[in-house]
Known about the structure:
Layout: H1 3-17, H2 23-36, H3 41-51, H4 64-79, E1 83-84, E2 90-96, E3 100-110, E4 115-125, E5 130-132, E6 135-137, H5 140-159, E7 164-171, H6 179-186, E8 195-201, E9 211-215, H7 224-228, E10 237-240, H8 257-262, E11 267-271, H9 290-308
Parallel strand pairs: 4-7, 4-8, 8-11, 9-10
Antiparallel strand pairs: 1-3, 2-3, 3-7, 5-6, 9-11
The protein binds zinc ion.
Amino acid sequence: MNYRYFTCLFLVVFVISCKTQNTSQKNTEAAVVSTAYYLNTSALLEDVEILSSDAYEGRRTGTNGAALAQEYIVERFAQLGVHPLGSGYLQSFTFQAGKTYHAANVLALIPGTSNTKEYIILSAHYDHEGIQNGEIYNGADDDASGIAALIAFAEYFKENPPKHSVILAAVDAEELGLVGSKYFVENSIIPIENIKLNINMDMISRSDKNQLYAVGSKYYKHLEAPIKNTIPYGNLQLRIGHDGSDKLDDWTYASDHASFHKAGIPFIYFGVEDHKDYHQPTDDYKNIHPDFYKNAVHTILAVFQKLDTMQL
Ligand SMILES: [Zn+2]
């Protein structure tokens, strides 16, 4: 018997058998059936492992490692049949930061099925800290985890096209001052007023406390209900915070979502609290938490699905 079919059949039987249980539990099971089947979590982990391997030399902007990461993302998008946003996948640019850097965002387009002229930008950054004092900073959590999620969403959208058009933005030069996302916004390939939302993922693959934070609804109130109404996957806790309204670090300007926020574009940033390997050469694949990571990506997809049905 086909294993995938058998798994699906089992889930259906399982959900039916759970019907007598309480409502919230039932809803959780139903949510698992509707998306888990399509998110390719083995490819998700493999993509993080590859992008954070030593061969990519820490992916510092302008280095050979960053070029390899660009090639890898382009190849994965192409394999999945995802089209480039512009004439090619790369949006190249140069900038000065002590020296001249040559950089490129990798951009793909998923056409929407109904709100075709309204865009949701899913973003993550592929650059990291490179090699310092002979040590490779592999940046598995920061932010190979966000890039692999982008690729997993590309695969999901093949079978489940979104209502809004979606741009998958793998941006460069975040670590050098959010340069790639700033360039994306200031040199928008589509009319800027058609960008309705940015969902940014930066560090989503580990948490000792099983907590994933969502930032942004403090500024854009219409985004609060879809976050609050999402049932998180597994034992993950989805929290709103780190936005200046609590005593925690304020992440409003901490990653690429800031470039959208400064342009008045609503955003939700998903991320975890800093850990002992944050910006250390030990931010390696072996130190991510696979179960937390898979739950986080499923939860972000569940929030996306709610947002996609809204008038943004
Ligand atoms: Zn980062």
